[in-house]
Specification:
76 residues, mainly beta, three-stranded parallel beta sheet, two-stranded parallel ribbon, 1 helix, 7 strands, elongated
C-alpha cells in the first residue's frame, strides 16, 4: 500500500489537509510543523498518522467544554 505524506504548515488547517486527500485506503501521514494548531480535528479517513516536530514543539488544542463554571473549569 502506498504512503502519502502531506506537510501542514503552521497557520494552515489540519482538517483542510485531510479533506484534500482522497481516502483510497493508502496510509496518510500529516507532517505538522512546530507550533500550536487551534482547531477541532475530525479524522474520517482510515490509516492516518499525525506527526509533529516533537512532543514539546507541536500541539493540537481546542476548547470544547459543554459549559464552564465561574472558576473556568470545564463542566460536563
Amino acid at each position: 500500500m502506498q504512503q502519502r505524506i502531506i506537510p501542514v504548515r503552521l497557520g494552515n488547517s489540519i482538517n483542510e489537509a485531510l479533506i484534500s486527500v482522497q481516502d483510497d485506503g493508502s496510509d496518510i501521514v500529516l507532517l505538522l510543523e512546530e507550533g500550536v494548531y487551534r482547531e477541532k480535528v475530525v479524522i474520517n479517513h482510515r490509516n492516518v498518522t499525525l506527526t509533529g516536530a516533537g512532543r514539546t514543539k507541536t500541539r493540537i488544542s481546542y476548547d470544547d467544554a459543554a459549559s464552564t463554571v465561574c472558576d473556568g473549569m470545564p463542566l460536563g
